[in-house]
């Protein structure tokens, strides 16, 4: 079809989709473009943007993420073939902006969506609180959208019930001993422990607590787990494989590493609760902890070792223009001048008003 210059990007995209669904007259078009969505969230200043840029092979400096940002990645499956597209959303601000999950998690994205949770290993006293808040918020939104989607499908004549996107049956083999014990996250989930180079400097017992706890959480949610550092080409290569698996459906590799003295690399379904064992309790009497579930027990042990700091991350600066991390010297100077001019105008206007004589 002719592409008029007045057409918007969305109009052209809609026309292209209609053309494909109707045959489009292109007999040589055998392959269709695959589109997936990836939602990144995690620790504030935990390296999300840097990791994403490396996974997308983009050689550019990373900048602090402002609220919720969108980008995309493309990959060709072969010579002269359509490029697959990955729609990528990145949530900034740690857990303080978790209410924005409603924008990347929608009925339109739900069937092709994956979630990547990036946790800063160098700050274990913030790790559990950040992880818990973000996973709970994302899961609540996912379940809400799934419910809306199912209701809409039921209302359609001849509609068939569709199974959940992510279930134990799709991750664990039939003979896996933990099939009935896990609670799979509603969509594929990858947990990335960032800044492993700094994490290595921690006491060995504390590293063991972090490693085993994240192994438990990842296995409980049927998620993949990998520790990485942007300073290690080897670890970033492994991380990119996991990312490309979610974004483009590529093979994520067969490497498995469960040694707490080394970077963890555990694809979903490769671990077991028996291998993970019980929570490390060097200085904690587990029997004295009143836990209702295994997950709650791991939380209590972890927080005994690493008392959690506040993760509320209150937005003290509600105006991003006044946040120093987004400073732009030339623009800020012009803004300051305009603010001064505005204040002077207000003072002059106030004097003029006081000088007016009201008519009787």
Describe what you observe in this structure.
By secondary structure, the protein is of the alpha/beta class. Helices cover 38% and strands 13% of the residues. The chain has ten helices and seven strands. It has helices at residues 9-21, 48-55, 124-154, 168-171, 196-199, 204-220, 233-248, 273-276, 294-305, 329-355, and strands at 35-42, 68-76, 83-91, 113-120, 189-194, 224-227, 265-266. A seven-stranded mixed sheet has the order 2-3-1-4-5-6-7, sandwiched between helices. A hairpin with a 6-residue loop joins strand 2 and strand 3. Helix 6 (204-220) packs antiparallel against helix 9 (294-305). The chain is globular. The model is unreliable at 1-6, 23-30 and 313-317 (pLDDT under 50).
Task: Give a summary of the structure in a few sentences.
The chain is an alpha/beta fold and 360 residues long. Helix content is 38%, strand content 13%. It has helices at 9-21, 48-55, 124-154, 168-171, 196-199, 204-220, 233-248, 273-276, 294-305, 329-355, and strands spanning 35-42, 68-76, 83-91, 113-120, 189-194, 224-227, 265-266.
